[in-house]
Amino acid sequence: MAKVATYKSPAQKVYDAFGGPMEVSRATGISFQEVYRWRYDKVKRGCDGLVPHRHQETILAAVARLHLRLKPADLVKIPA
Questions:
Q1: How far apart are CA 66 and CA 64, in angstroms?
Q2: Which domains does the chain have, with CATH numbers?
Q3: Do residues 10 and 49 touch, judged by C-beta distance below 8 A?
Q4: DSSP assignment of 43-58, as one string?
Q5: For the whole model, what pTM was predicted?
Q6: What is the pLDDT of residues 25-58, one digit of tens each?
Q7: What are 54-65's pLDDT values in tens digits?
Q8: 28: closest CA among 76, 73, 64, 71?
Q9: How many CB atoms are located within 10 Å of the residue 80 CB?
Q10: Helix (H, G, I), strand (E, B) or coil at 41
């Protein structure tokens, strides 16, 4: 049986690497409400699963400091 690839949004990749939105917030100093809102649709004042550009450098610094498995490319949506 073939393995089906599932799409993970950039926000979900960050959550997975850190262990959830609360851990992203703790490690980066970005407010929990803002981190959690990344998964919401834009109509709900969210980011549609994207990681805002203004936070990417902070996230990558925390990734390096904590030795997490997350690449810069994981923070952006790659067109299909």
A1: 6
A2: 10-75 (1.10.260)
A3: yes
A4: GGT--TTPPPHHHHHH
A5: 0.87
A6: 999 999 999 999 999 998 888 899 999 999 999 9
A7: 999 999 999 999
A8: 64
A9: 4
A10: coil
